[in-house]
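Fold this complex.
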Amino acid sequence: MTDGSPSYARNDGEFGVGEVPPEYDVEETVEDHKSTRARIVEALRANKLALAGAIAIVLLVLVAAFAPFVAPHGPEEQFGFMQEPMSQSSGDFDSDGQTETVTHYLGTDSFGHDILTRIIFGARVSLLVALATVAFAFTVGTTLGILAGFYGGWVDSVVMRYVDFQWAFPEIILGVGIIAVMGGLGVTNVVLAIGIAFIDDFARIIRGEVLSIREEEYITAARAVGMNDARIMFKEMLPNAVAPLIVQATLMIPFAILAEAGLSFLGLGVKPTTPTWGLLISDGRQFISRAWWISVMPGLAIMVTVLAFNTLGDGLRDAFDISEEEVN
Amino acid sequence: MWRYIAKRVAHAVFVMWLVATTVFLGLRSIPGGPVRAMLGQEATPEAVASLRRELGLDEPLPVQYVDWVTGMFVGDFGTSISSGAEVSSLLAQAAPRTLSIALFGVLLGLAVSIPAGVVGATRRNQPADYAATIAAFLGISMPAFFVGILLAIVFGVWLGWFPVVGYTPLSEGFVPWLKSITLPGVAVGLPYAAGVTRMMRSSLIETLDEQYMRTALAKGVKSDVRLYKHALQNALMPVVTIAGIQLALVLGGTVTVEIVFGVQGLGRLLVNSILERNYPVTQVTILLISGIFVFMNLIVDIAYTAIDPRVQYGGDQA
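Structure:
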């Protein structure tokens, strides 16, 4: 309040310059704005379980990415058949003329493959498919949901009827049906089959968010300054609705992992020869009376991975204060 | 209430029509057509033409569509390409197996999850709550077929209490039937129970914090009445929704668990038909599984009328 301001803006009254009457003093403070990233970091600091999940996920991704360097053996290398966990094989495995002894920490399968190695290589397919699936569903579902919420009317009706319809198929059945129509097996087909089944979840959430954001004043302001629809939708609305989407994506990844495992367990997954976790379980199925570890070990790998994503997702959901009914 | 039910039934019929039409169009949009896919690239034109005639694929699309829809109403689903058997008789054989397992799973899931959720919510942060929470967390992290394999190893192979392979029809006695579906039923029921338990617990915790619960306490309402009449009835609503949505998990789980236990149910039928490109069987099986799911959800919707008085007294929320 110095020379720059016009005279009518001066407040030289009872309370002096710049002074606020006591009745305007409020006790509560407005929470400082925090970026999404800052809130995630804070959530991880506060919630040890979520942090453990995040660390486990980072480790898993690293192991999968560097599988050939991390795995003790090659995925097709063969040793003794159906050896128990912690058993050892002796032989000249690297053909250098000397006999060496290797330990199979998780045992070997019916072909003599080292199970730990197969699980590490299987992590590649499982994680890749899961991430690609969620990325696909996220992109398509979010776009559809924003359009539906923003335009309303017939666009909304069409999208919501589609969501209703998709809901009528149990996810794995929809995936199986899509595989049937597309015929071949392969990474792209599996990603599409599971990804399409997840579109509705993202569409429904973002539509709900957009419906409430649409009435906010900053949207009216954005219109008033002449922003076009696309800019309002993707630059104004989307960033404000991103928290539930992040949580949903984190919680969808484990579903994608389970769905991929289910498809490859059924023999409708990536390729019958690629070691995926679902396929490893299915390979061991017929030997459960003689070698339980062939099926159980890859199953535990699925469980640990899914648990890690679930703890992280739950932690983020609490951090963003989203109710369990909103995302699931 | 009747208006609400009529609305839900109409919606279910609409969804089924949509599913039937999609399956119809989906299989006809296979690149190169389903017959080429079934017979392979080297098939002679005569063979292709005769199979097309046999499947009615040489008719114009609208005629095929009318045939498909009327066939569904009279139960004429065509014949299997691989075995020549009527698709309807294949389904009649497989469906009871799948339904037995799925129903066992749902009943077990609800019987476990609702008490577990109530215990978790009422004894918050006590050992019983921790046990229920951890068990539920493990449950949602395991695919049903893996639970099935674990059960088969422990209770089938090691302990020998239950058969590991096969299904005994109800006509051969209740106990053998029950024994044959116990392990697969538990395998699909546990992951289902896990999801419902989590919802039950968090929903009840939220309800117990409501103002009217404090009012009830102040009025001197007995604690059992408070819990079961005031809190539980309100807390159940989101649980019923989740229990309905999660039925998809049960059906999907049943499909995989059937393969674990070598049960020749709908899942096995579906997977085999896809692998041998037996489209007449594939399309009807997908339709039937979706139909079961839609029907189960219709029941859930109607169950709402029992617990949500707003529906009963003519409220128009749905």
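The beta strands of chain A are 87-91, 100-104.
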